[in-house]
Amino acid sequence: MLKRSNLVLISVLAVLTLFVVAACAEGTENPFGTTTPVPTEGSSNPGTSNPEPSGPDIANGESKFTGLGCSGCHKTDSGKLVGPGLAGIAARGDEYIRLSITDPGAELVEGYANLMPTSFANLKQSDLDDLVAYLKTLN
After folding, report:
1. Please, what are the domains in the chain?
2. 93: helix, coil or strand?
3. Comparing 130 with 12, which gets the higher pLDDT?
C-alpha cells in the first residue's frame, strides 16, 4: 500500500505534468486563458494625447512571454526545462529569435525535440517585436 506522502508526491507530479502539457499545447495561442487588455478605439480621454511608442515595448514582451505560456517550457536563465534556457539568446540575432518563435522546427537546438507549438506564427507583428525585444534582455 502506498504511503500518504507518496500519493501526495504523485499527485503533485501529475499536476505539474498537466501544466507543462497545457503550456506547450499546439493549436492554441494562449492555453491559460489570460489576456492582455487591448484598448478600443476612442477609449482614451479626448483631452489627452497618447504618443505612439517609438519601438518595441519590452514590458509587453515580458507579459506575452508569461501570458502565452512560454515560461511553462523555457527558463529565462540558462537552465533547462522542456525547452532550452533563453539566457544569452540575443547573441543568435533577431531573425533567429523570430524564426524560433514563428517556425520552431526550422532550426532546433541540439538535444531538444520539436515540441514547440506552431500557433505563435499568428502573433501580431507588434507583439512579436515586443517579445523579441524582451528575449534580447535575457543574459
Report:
1. 4-32+56-135 (1.10.760.10)
2. coil
3. 130
